[in-house]
Amino acid sequence: MSFRLICVIAVLALCGCSGSQMTVYRLQKDAGSLGSLAAEGQLLADMAAKAGAPSSYVSTHSSELGADAGDLASVVGSTDPTAQTARPRHQLLELATEATALFEELEHAPNDRGKAQKIATRFGHIADSATKIEEQG
Amino acid sequence: MKIFQIALGVLAAIGGFVDIGDLVFNAQAGARFGYELIWAVLVGAVGIIVYSEMCGRVAMVAKRPVFEIVRDRMGYGSGLATLFAGQFVNLLTCVAEVGGIAYILRYLLGFEVRPMILVAFAGLVLVLWFFSFEGLERVFGFGGLLLLVFSVAVITGPTDWDALAHGAIPNPPQAAHGGWLIWAYFVVGVASASLMPYEVYFFSSGAIEDGWAPESESLLNKLTSIVGFGLGAFLAISVMVASALIFLEPGIDPEFLGTVPLGAGQPLGEWALIVALLGMLFAIGGAAVDATLSGAYSMAQFFGWEWGKYRKPGEAPRFTLTWLVFLAIAALVVATGIDPVMVTEYSVIFGVVAMPLTYLPVLVIANDGGYMGRYANGPMSRALGWAYFAIIILLALTAVPLLILTNMGAG
Asked: Taking the complete model, does pTM exceed 0.80, yes or no?
């Protein structure tokens, strides 16, 4: 009996923890993740712009990073904002969606040096904006 | 003495220090903590040098590999438990390494990952079937040295040598780099990765494969342990520092295997990125060989089957079948789409729990003057052996709680 009670409490606790509200803590974590992805995207696109990496590598790694950015965008999009996090959450969602699109562009045109340069610049802005959201909470 | 004779140590060390998990783990440690965790690599390196030298010596004197001795000293039941624990970790490691090879091939060739898993599986089967033990040691051991490109990146980069020297001494975490728990998780992970039991199973079996005798190869055993594992530690530190130089400031957290070669490729250019990927291919391939053969050695030695790469595959059929099954299971598990990096992090942490069961019998026998004669541990080896056994117990007790409390280091 007591074991069942413990199980029920554990399930309820887990359900409670996995609520879909965008708290400040969660916003900071997600912004940190996007900042990391965007900074890596900038590094990768910069190397592609300077012909500093094989196209197979640029394409494959962009695809991996883009999948992560897409997952992040859908997770952020599925959360309910609080009064405090509504604006930065919306901004974070837009940034994550843009990052996903940029990774997709880089994946499909790893040899286009001009485009890669522009993508690197955009990733730089996304990384800066994500860092600001993380710091301001 | 030919330089090539230390290849056993180089291969065993590369399997232990720079396999897929270590590459990602060390890159993450560098990206998060800068040079702060270099000392943890050194702690693991001295530990594995002490115990691999002991295992090689015991194997030479007893003419029996470590796993046979574990079974004899611990009894059949405890030996069987050690076998199961060890095989579980071996299999996890094998899964991760086969997946790692497939991913590296994908970065190099651009194909989808599933066909690359098949290529990795077929390549490993062919290599293990046709190559001699010496051939395996040399191809993977010395091929893995391409990772020295990370050392070139460190030497030619803006490395802060004072901070690097400071990082070689144990130091508490800085506030900016996260809390104590995450720091402790990385310390345990970095130190433990180099002490995985499969390395000593492989090393002691390799000593027998290479036909070492205590009268003629004692010095070679010491040299192989020190140079081989020392080199492994040097490569691991190079990856960590190269990652600190490139990833720490922009706040990149390397979660993919593909992020690691950027540590060399970003500062040195395309050729360095390709060399880093090739070095990773050989290192991860070597780790796959280590883990697969180690699994087959352990099974064969425990159940008393014919074993050894010096025999033709048909002369040791159950040994051959075991490594074939190991690789097949690994390839099938990877084909499900599981993340090999995550698998290897679990294998390191669970491997820690099995460590005391492996190392205690070795230490007891190496200390036993009646059994080892003039090759028994001297006062220095004895003291180091017990000190490291205490560290191993500490690692074993803290690994799983830290894994849970830190959400695998994610915080």
From this structure: yes
